[in-house]
């Protein structure tokens, strides 16, 4: 029985991934900040719930050690995420640090904690959830772009140094996922930008129908499962027709023309 370690499993894509891998016969170590929410998996055999706040370096070390004490781990899925939207001028220091700690440093630190064991075993796979925001850009998402483009590039860079030890590194970039993540994102603004932020948010709301737009968490989890099991020498995967369409358009017209098109679309 193979084992996967997943961060951010209390809802959304993380929860869907737990259930999908479990249904495929995998043992799952499901981590989350609030372990009390782990009762959502109480009906699933071979699912172990552990507490993990990926902004806490010491807890990362202790939780990874606990997970490894339970047996060999084959795949690590870095999924936990936090979103904040708004002009940089309005972002607090706490929001700035939280964005980087959760979306970038958290994945890096979890990966770093597992590498020695994977290297000794000469096998293992890391899968990092990036985003369409790691492939293209939008107004007022600069910090989210910073961390998601960072994860995208970091993952590709890591693939070189890990491959010789039999360790894989992959990314899955979803577009809009029909989960609470978008609605839970923190939106900040300040007066000089308010009209533009309102315009941007109204366009985004019109594009993201919660019942028909983008992909379900279960559909994205299927791409994650594909990446975990296809044994391909491939780093980057795209999940969702919306993500694929935007990325293809950027490649077709080039980054500068794409940037101009996005400005017109979202800001008028």
Our count of helices gives 9
Distance between the termini: 53 Å
Tell how many strands the DSSP assignment holds. Answer: 9
- Number of structurally distinct domains: 1
User: What's the oligomerization state?
Assistant: single chain
Low-confidence stretches: none
Q: Any idea of the CATH topology?
A: Rossmann fold
Q: What is the approximate shape?
A: globular
User: What Rg, in angstroms, do the CA atoms define?
Assistant: 18 Å
Question: Residue share in helices?
Answer: 40-55%
The CATH class turns out to be Alpha Beta
Strands ordered across the widest β-sheet: 3-2-1-4-6-7-9
Q: What can be said about the biggest beta sheet?
A: 7 strands, parallel
Our estimate of the beta-strand percent is: 15-25%
Content-based structural category: alpha/beta
Family: Belongs to the short-chain dehydrogenases/reductases (SDR) family.
Organism: Dyadobacter subterraneus
InterPro entries: NAD(P)-bd_dom_sf, SDR_fam, SDR_oxidoreductase
Protein name: SDR family oxidoreductase
Search tags:
7-stranded parallel sheet, 9 strands, 268 residues, single chain, Rossmann fold, 9 helices, two-stranded parallel ribbon, alpha/beta
Structural summary, described in words:
This protein is an alpha/beta fold and 268 residues long. It has one domain: NAD(P)-binding Rossmann-like Domain (Rossmann fold, 3-Layer(aba) Sandwich). Helix content is 50%, strand content 15%. It has nine helices and nine strands. It has helices at residues 12-23, 57-69, 93-121, 142-163, 181-184, 194-207, 217-229, 241-253, 255-267; strands spanning 3-6, 27-32, 47-51, 75-78, 84-85, 124-129, 167-174, 186-187, 236-239. A seven-stranded parallel sheet has the order 3-2-1-4-6-7-9, with helices on both faces. Strands 5-8 form a two-stranded parallel sheet. Helix 4 links the parallel strand 6 (124-129) and strand 7. The longest helix has 29 residues, at 93-121. It is globular, with a radius of gyration of 18 Å. The model has no long low-confidence stretch (mean pLDDT 93). This is SDR family oxidoreductase.
